[in-house]
Amino acid sequence: MITGKALDELRNAIGAIHVRTDEAVEALDPGWHPDNLKAGVLVAPESTAEVAAVLTICRAYGIGVVTHGGRTGLVGGAISAPGEIVLSTVRLNRIVDLDPVARVAVVEAGVTLEALQQAAQIHRLDPGIDIPSRGSATIGGMVSTNAGGIMAFRNGVMRHRVLGLEAVLADGSIYSDLTRVVKTTAGYDLKHLFIGAEGTLGIVTRVALNLDVTPPATVTAFFGLPSIAAVLDVIRMALDSPAGSLRAAEALWQSFFHLTATTQGFADASVDAGMPLYLLLTLGGADEGAMRDAFEQMFERAIERYPNMSGIVATSARQERDLWRLREDTDAIYRAFPAAPSYDVSVPLSGIDAYVTRALDGLRCLDPAFCPFVFGHLADGNLHIVLNHAGPLRPDRTRAVEAILYQDLAGFGGSFSAEHGIGAKRVEALRTYGDPTKRALMRLVRDAIDPSAILSRNKVIVRP
To answer: Which residue of 28, 96, 200, 423 shows the fewest CB atoms closer than 10 Å?
Structure first.
């Protein structure tokens, strides 16, 4: 347990009001996982220097530290335990600089994605990455999990958006490389150690991000299609469109569409509710009319190949938002099936059809009641598969499901963890399906940077 002396030192370092214990912690929202605040102690430093002071104290007393951003993670990366402290970045919430000429933003780790999007939009700029939890997900958390999201096929994942960063190591030392330019070959590019490390190698405190110019207009279309091949065909048409650039291509399998359509009260005579798949597309460009025409032409070309397809083109911002809610209301699954087991894989586009067929058949053979909800970023091959099952599975059943979903993925160039990370949930999956040499190197790096093992214990690579 954490001693009173250690708590006193933490209070002296960052101010007593910013060290919460017991009931003051219980009053907070734990976020996605009920054990996120189980440590019972939460500290909220206001600066990089204060983060460094906290880690110096924790290392001296052997106290484990779990970093919290928006608590939106889905793999247990924010779970804490008694004897540890939670370090919240909630007070590291400043946009330090937003340079519209260089198209670069420097922000603190606790800035939410939505706050940065709104600040950048004033200059018609955008971080170039978007996820449904934009209102609560923080930039530091997104860097630490290497978040992907809706525009990854176009702009890459978080790793490709970060120009430089600042992080505090377990011993309290500060790694500072807030480079704001794309071209730099000044030695090892060590920022990539912290991107995707899920807080196990250091606590990200500030980030320099590349920004993109946003298009003057967007247009969204929603198509019902008969097959994965048809979906990929229409995506290619959209990628080739001269009227605008494809900004999003999201696929919804029938069960997921029916669930969110029912939840949202969505009904449109132009959309056949009996199609196996649905495709949400957004184009961005200068001429809204030209993009609407392009979608109409796309529909005409596609219907010649797939006569039973259906679809609509949004004619207003409100209709565009309504269509996007069909994809983004993933909480509808968890309202219907609390704590439903979820999986997040990446599959090369050419292998998606065979993979989905094999995976769904395998799940039905394992349990005829399984009718999973499937949706994803189909332009980059990222699929989300959520079982229609309330609560966690038994360990043996979890292993059986993972064997169906993960087996041979790496062999044909996919990944068992696409954008949600490893956290605490997928530690065993990493042991089973990860490359052993990679795991050994990861352990060497972790042992070298955090030899006292205070950062995010029992996450990603667990020490024996």
So the answer is: 96
Contacts of 387 (CB under 8 A, 6+ apart): 337, 340, 341, 342, 363, 370, 372, 373, 393, 401
Residue bearing tokens 């340079």: 99
Tokens of 464: 């024996």
**Token couple for 366:** 């394992």
pLDDT single digits (tens) 385-404: 999 999 899 999 999 999 99
Compute φ and ψ for 401, nearest 5 degrees. -65, -45
Model confidence, pTM: 0.93
φ, ψ of residue 453 to 5 degrees: the values are 55, 55
371 CB-contact burial (10 Å; exposed 0-12 / middle 13-18 / buried 19+): middle
Q: What is the pLDDT of residues 420-435, one digit of tens each?
A: 999 999 999 999 999 9
Query: Residue 464 above 80 pLDDT?
Result: no
| The pair of three-digit structure tokens given for residue 433, joined into one six-digit string | 């399906």
Here the contacts of 436-445 (C-beta below 8 Å, separation 24 or greater) are: 445/193, 445/201
CA 385, 388, 392, 395 dihedral sign is negative
Could you tell me the strand order of the sheet in which 41-43 lies?
Answer: 19-21, 41-43, 84-88, 64-68
- Is the C-alpha dihedral spanning 358, 362, 365, 369 positive or negative? negative
| Mean pLDDT computed over every residue of the chain | 96
What is the share, in percent, of the chain residues with pLDDT greater than 70? Answer: 100
